[in-house]
Design brief:
The chain has helices at residues 16-27, 32-43, 59-66, 116-124, 146-150, 160-163, 170-193, 195-214, 309-324, and strands at 46-52, 80-81, 84-85, 91-95, 110-115, 132-135, 142-145, 231-238, 241-247, 258-266, 271-278, 287-291, 297-302. By secondary structure, the protein is α+β, with helices and mostly antiparallel strands.
């Protein structure tokens, strides 16, 4: 599978609520009520699913399909869901919340976007003998066990003494949501939208960034952030380089949460870079990190002195270009 195929608009998915719900459930020590809510969100989502096709399909027809062109009446062919196995040999139906979670596309001949309910139906199909759904298997993964889709949650006692679960406080959820925005949603939007993202960042500034940070909260839960909590400064370094420095809210900053972010854009080559200064662990220095276009989060070096962060970022980009030449 050509990785450029993932750039097609048909692969656009917005699963910020689903990803936040997964983080919330994971942090809750498996709270059964949070699992119930998570499954409801998952059922309403659109996900990417790898599929295979018959070997006798003509290459020209396959290429036509991969380009997103409609097939003729005599050219259509069936697609078959692909399964993945864990170390114990248990098979699962894989699915991905977004294109940036697909790191090794060579494993999958083709992908389609489908309602998650279709994936659940496959997982429950007795003939397929699956253990459930494996979500984002290449980036940590989250397993929906088959039994979870068959559970009648209304019959499970709500007595906290019987469940003995840890509830996630609002502050904890804010941190989980913030981490998801900084490490996933912002870089994904930057690398997908490229120049359009940078244009909005330059023109709408604090309002635009505040909207990104408020996305996991939806319409019913109030976001803790306001535009005045952010500071956005665009800089034209030279004709090949635009940099945008973003100062982030000082509240809810714990280890591995970003205090500032740096977007760098080359309008000529349409290359983009995304860096962050993240708070270090207790007793340790802050860290300069980045997220690659493939969605990989990397810790690069100890944070440079205050005021020289952007210089350090530009130096790293320059070194990267020199190594590539």
């Amino acid at each position: 599978m050509d990785k450029k195929i993932l750039e097609r608009a048909s692969y656009d998915t917005d699963n910020a609520k689903l990803e936040a719900a997964i983080a919330d459930y994971t942090a809750s020590n498996n709270d059964i009520r949070k699992l119930e809510g998570l499954i409801k969100i998952f059922k309403g989502a659109q996900v990417l699913v790898p599929v295979a096709f018959p070997k006798q399909v003509k290459v020209t027809v396959l290429e036509k399909m991969l380009r997103g062109e409609p097939l003729g009446k005599d050219e259509s062919f069936p697609l078959f869901p692909i399964t993945m196995s864990d170390q114990k040999g248990n098979k699962f139906a894989p699915a991905f919340t977004s294109r940036d979670k697909v790191l090794e596309t060579k494993e999958f001949p083709y992908m389609i976007r489908v309602p998650a309910e279709q994936v659940i139906r496959n997982a429950l199909n007795e003939k397929m003998n699956l253990g459930g759904v494996l979500l984002n298997p290449q980036t940590g993964g989250f397993v929906f066990r088959r039994q979870a889709f068959l559970t009648d949650f209304s019959k499970i006692p709500a007595d906290p003494q019987k469940r003995q679960v840890k509830k996630v406080s609002r502050d904890e959820f804010i941190i989980l949501a913030r981490s998801s925005v900084e490490k996933n949603q912002i870089p994904r939007a930057l690398f997908e939208q490229k120049g359009e993202f940078v244009r909005r960042l330059e023109e709408e500034r604090e309002t635009f960034v505040c909207g990104l940070y408020g996305k996991p909260y939806g319409d019913k839960v109030p976001s803790p952030y306001r535009p005045e909590d952010f500071s956005v400064m665009p800089l034209d370094i030279d004709e090949d380089t635009t940099a945008v420095c973003i100062e982030l809210p000082g509240s809810h900053v714990v280890p591995h949460i970003a205090t500032s972010a740096y977007v760098v854009w080359n309008p000529k080559t349409e290359e983009a870079w995304y860096y962050m200064i993240e708070k270090g662990a207790a007793g340790e220095s802050d860290v300069l990190c980045n997220v690659t276009p493939e969605g990989k989060h990397q810790e690069l070096m100890t944070s440079p002195p205050v005021g020289s962060e952007l210089t350090a970022v530009l130096d790293l980009i320059r070194e990267e270009k020199e190594e590539a030449e």
